[in-house]
Amino acid sequence: MTVKHSWTESERDIVRRDYDGHVLSALRIASKIGVTLFAVKGQVGIMGLAMDKSPRWTDREVETLREMITQYSPITIARRLHRSVNSVVVKSKRLGLSRRVRDGWFTKKEVCEILGVDHKKIQGYIDKGELKASWHTERKPQKNGMALWHIETKDLREFIKKNIGDFQGRNVDLVVIVWLVNGDIE
């Protein structure tokens, strides 16, 4: 059984002074203090000394993100900005940008939330041709979610009118359904 190390202020000073963001410096510190690499990395995280390896967002990139977020999937934006998908998603959340507002179409996930059903049920409707959907990106949506299903508002409206009896319960977003059926959402 290992005993948790109690860090002293002088050991923390060593970490502050010697840690440069690389594993080698963390290994040297671990050896000097007599702890594991993971103990040093944990202390680095607690002390807020972890180095941010991703480049800072430029004003131009942020503006591009703001312009594209309502029209394109995060993977498309990431490719265009030469950033990771995670970076795009995190930055959009930090900026308070909604990835859900689009003109004239919904993703399969959004349809699931509106109708209060599991994605497998919606996928079944798509596979049977009862709900028209296309691929939003050049790649077919797969299990890893690297692309979006593109469901036009008019197609969703018709689908709801034909199948309204299938969607009942407390998870249904009744307000959005009423707006869709009334034509308030285009």
**Apparent shape:** elongated
Number of strands: 3
Sequence of secondary-structure elements: HHHHHHEHHEEHH
Q: Radius of gyration over alpha carbons? A: 24 Å
- Class by alpha and beta content: mainly alpha
- Strand percentage lies at under 5%
Uncertain stretches of 5 or more adjacent residues = none
The chain-level mean pLDDT equals 84
The CATH C-level name of the largest domain is: Mainly Alpha
Main pleated sheet: 3 strands, antiparallel
Describe the protein in words.
The protein has three domains: 9-47; 59-94; 105-182, Multidrug-efflux Transporter Regulator, Chain: A, Domain 2, CATH 1.10.1660. The protein is 53% helix and 4% strand. The chain is built from ten helices and three strands. Helix 1 packs antiparallel against helix 2 (23-33). The mean pLDDT is 84.
Question: SSE layout and pairings?
Answer:
Blueprint: H1 9-18, H2 23-33, H3 37-47, H4 59-68, H5 74-81, H6 85-94, E1 105-106, H7 108-115, H8 119-128, E2 134-135, E3 149-152, H9 153-163, H10 174-182
Antiparallel strand pairs: 1-3, 2-3
